[in-house]
Amino acid sequence: MFNIDTTFICIGLFVIIFIISVSLLIFAPKSINYYTPDTYPILKSIHDNNKDIITGDFEKIENDQNWLAWPDSENTSGTCEVYPMYMFSTASKLRKAKCIALYNLIQNIPDVKSCAFIKLDKKSKINKQTQWKELANTTLRCLFILKSVSSAPVETCGIWVNGESKKLISNSLVIFDSSKEHSIYNDTDYPIYALLIDLQRPEKIPNGISQREYSDELYDFVCGLNTE
Fold it and tell me: Is the pLDDT of residue 27 over 90?
């Protein structure tokens, strides 16, 4: 009855599949890796109006002897350290006492899960990884950048989240999804310091995607805070 050339059918199907694929790429929801400071208005207000308290307490402990190794040694290179006031539902009485003005300020923010200073020494890096699912899937990670080499290019001093990079600029506030693969890196000759705060995700933001379990190293870290 009909003499249909199968070549034209195959070409037609290919064109249809191509058009559908391109449409999905164009119109599919974009993955959100970073969030604006307006995500947490109270945190933005503290960042904008209370820098003296943050920097004042930081200067007290910058050269303190009670910094700890970041509790994820398999995913760090160089020297990465943390000064935890409150992490993993555990307060450090020793460190909290030295940063009491900041600690009291942060207590005014609802649903804080972590509050700590972090340091990436020169030529150091937190390698690509996801944070632990029990923490990261229900929070967003906020970094108050205290000291950074702002003139360095993003390839040298920055944060990478799920394929998207940002420079770490002094006095800036970076909010990102730590349940996604990410890295923080410092290839300069100077250390980077930041205040790290993990906050409960707003209701409008879906839970994260990390599958990573807590490690023995992390349990040892928390036990150490408990026994101070």
Answer: no
CATH, residue 82: 2.60.120.330
Other C-beta atoms within 10 Å of 136: how many?
A: 24
Q: Is residue 10 part of a domain?
A: no
Q: Which residues contact 141 (CB under 8 A, 6 or more apart)?
A: 131, 175, 176, 177, 178, 196, 197, 198
- Name the domain count of the chain: 1
CB atoms within 10 A of CB 217: 13
Give the DSSP letter string of the chain. -----HHHHHHHHHHHHHHHHHHHHHHSPPPP-EE-GGGSHHHHHHHHH-HHHHHHHHHHHTT-TT-EE-S-GGGEES-EEEEEEEETTEE-HHHHHHTHHHHHHHTTSTTEEEEEEEEE-TTEEEEEE---HHHHTTEEEEEEEEE--TTS-TTTEEEEETTEEEE--TT-EEEE-TTS-EEEEE-SSS-EEEEEEEEEPPTTSPP----PPPPHHHHHHHHHHHT-
**Per-residue model confidence (pLDDT) at position 226:** 84
Per the domain annotation, does 77 fall within a domain? yes
Percent residues over pLDDT 90 in the chain:
82
What is the mean predicted confidence (pLDDT) over 189-218? 97
Q: Which residue has the tokens 């599949």?
A: 17
C-alpha distances out from residue 33 to 19, 36, 98, 170, 185, Å: 28, 10, 33, 20, 17
Adjacent-strand bridge partners of 139: 200
